[in-house]
């Protein structure tokens, strides 16, 4: 299992919600391997053709992501996993407000008075998502994918039609 791949607990929580093959188009490549490839691409921003071989053929990963984006599978997965996590009491529905919502006063902009904290080198701190429960980590990962899907849809809606 590579860095950023689904953990065993995340996979077990996600697996019941995944679509099954209809057996008419042949066997599907393992969902876990493909989803790990999609998560890797969302996290790193690598081109589809440059996906590492451990995720299988790049075109398979791309096509599954495109298919699930078009038919709303990612949105459905996110809703189902969030509902399951909420039922388990692991979702905190507190509202967070940041500067994109609340405007600061014009005099609030200014130079720092204290120097920025020293950056730690890689590997010094705790691991990624270490203090999160499997539900929280899985929901966060699915949110990343759904946000990318929505960005794709927005870019596609604003672009002119192409003829081949």
Automatic annotation (TrEMBL):
Q: Which InterPro entries match?
A: IS402-like_dom, Transposase_6_like
Any Pfam family hit:
DUF4096
According to the entry, every stretch annotated as the Insertion element IS402-like domain falls at: 6-77
Which segments carry the region annotation Disordered? Answer: 106-132
Which NCBIfam families does the UniProt record give? transpos_IS5_3
Full protein name: Transposase
